[in-house]
Amino acid sequence: MPAVALWHCDEYTSAKLDPIVREALSLRPFSPGMRVLVKANMLAARAPEKCVATHPALVESVCRALLDLGCRPFIGDSPGIEPFPLVARVSGIAAVGEKLGVPVRELSRSTVCPPNARRVNRRLGLSADALEADAIVSLPKLKTHCQMQLTMAVKNLFGTVVGTRKAQWHYAVGLDRARFADVLIDILVSLPPVLSIVDGVWGMEGRGPGSGKPRFFGLIGASADAVALDAALAPMMGLPAENYAPLAAARARGIGDCELNGAEWRGDFDPGTRFENVDIPALDALSLMPRFMDKLGRALLASRPAQDESRCMQCGRCAAVCPAGALVLDGKKLRFDYSKCIRCYCCHEMCPFDAIVFHEGALMRVFKALGLARR
To answer: Is residue 345 within 8 Å of residue 371, measured between CB atoms?
Structure first.
C-alpha cells in the first residue's frame, strides 16, 4: 500500500521546505536522466499571496531536489484562459525556472491518449508533453472549489487537458458532477503521477478555486497514490471522503485506495486533524435528476451565476471562457442566457475580481426553507 505522508510546515522557506521535499521524493525512486514534468497548479495570473497557484517556493524546492537527483525537470500547466507567460510571471513560477535553469512550459500540444480499458471515456485528449514525460510530480494547491467543493491531488491533473478543451469537457458533462468526476479519474489512470505533493501551507477556502479567501493550514501532504492523498485530506477539510465526487468515482471503479485501511502514515502531522469551520461551497443538488432533465435541473435546482456590478471591471474573461456561449459583455453589463448556461461556473473560476456571484435555484431555496437540504 502506498504511504501517505503529512508534515507540519508553517512557512515557505527553503529551511522548512527542503527537508520535507527530500523526504517526499524518497517515497518513489527517481533515476538520473529522468525527464520529469513538475505539474504545478497555474490556474490564473495571481500573486502567490492570493493562494490560487502552487507557491513558487515549493516549486523551486521540488525542482532543486530533482536536479540534485540527476533528473531533468520541467514545469508545466495549461491555464484556463490567460496567456501562459503572464500566469507564469505573476505567480512567481517563471522566476523559479529562470533561477534554476528549468524550462517553464505551457502544456499546449494535445494528443489522443492510448487506449485504456479502465477509462469510462474511451477517447481522451491530453497534453503530449505530459504523456511524453518519463514521470509526473504533481503539485496541487489545497483549495475549495465552487463546482467540486475541493480541488486537491486528483483535480490538479485536469490541467493536462489543453486550453479550451477544458471548456469542452464542462459542456459535455453539463450538470452531471459524477460524470465530471469520471473524467478526472480517466485522466488519473491515463497520466498517473509518480508522486503528488499538496501545497497546504497556505490554501484557500470559500469561493475557490480562484476567488476564495487565503487560509493557513500549515500542511504539506504527499503520496504516490493521488486518490489516497485526497482521501486523507478531504475529511481534514471537513468533507467526508464518501461525499467527495472524485473519490466516489474512484471507489466505484476500484481506482486507488479510498478507504485508507492499514495506510502507512508518515510525517509529523496527525491524520486525524480536522481544520475548524472550513468554508466549503455548498453543493447544489445537480445530480438529483437524470441527465435528460438537465434543463429543469438548471432552472429549479442549480445556482445561477450573476454579475456583482460593484466588483466587475468589464475585462470580458468570463464571456471568453464560457463553454456554452451563454454569456456576453454588453458595455458594463454581463448578460446571461440561463437557457444555455450549463452551471459549470467557469465564469466564476476565471474572474480575477470575484465579480461572479451565485443565486440559488428556486426549488433549492424551497428545499432549504423546509429543512430538506443542507444550508
So the answer is: no
Alpha-carbon gap, residue 303 to 277, rounded angstroms: 23
- Check whether 366 has a pLDDT greater than 50: no
Tell me the C-alpha distance between 303 and 364, whole Å: 8
Cα distance between residue 182 and residue 245, in whole Å: 9
- List the beta bridge partners of residue 102: none
Query: Would you state the cell numbers that stand for residue 252, as one nine-digit string?
Result: 466505484
Residue ranges, comma separated, of all CATH 3.30.70.20 domains in the chain are 304-359
- At residue 303 the predicted structure's pLDDT band, cuts being 50, 70 and 90, is confident
Residue 93: pLDDT band by 50, 70, 90 thresholds?
very high
Q: Can you tell me the distance from the alpha carbon of 218 to that of 20, in angstroms, rounded to the nearest whole number?
A: 13
- Please, what is the angle between helix 93-100 and helix 56-68, to 10°? 30
The fold adopted by the segment(s) 4-266 is Rossmann fold (3.40.50)
From CA 127, how far away is CA 260, in angstroms rounded? 31
C-alpha cell at 268: 509529523
Report, in angstroms and rounded to the nearest whole number, the Rg of the chain calculated over CA atoms.
20
Residues of the chain with CATH 3.40.50: 4-266
CB neighbours of 18 closer than 8 A, spacing ≥ 6? 61, 64, 65
pTM confidence score? 0.86
Q: How confident is the model at residue 97, as a pLDDT?
A: 98
Taking only the tens place, the pLDDT of each residue in 68-82 is: 999 999 999 999 778
What is the CATH code for 304-359? 3.30.70.20
Alpha helices in the chain (DSSP H): 14-25, 56-68, 84-91, 93-100, 128-132, 153-156, 165-173, 177-190, 226-237, 245-253, 294-300, 317-321, 346-350, 362-369
Q: Is the dihedral of CA 105, 45, 227, 322 positive or negative?
A: negative
DSSP for 179-234?
HHHHHHHHHHHHS--SEEEEEEEEEEESSTTTSSEEEEEEEEEEES-HHHHHHHHH
257 contact partners, CB below 8 Å, separation of at least 6? 1, 2, 225, 227, 228, 231, 263
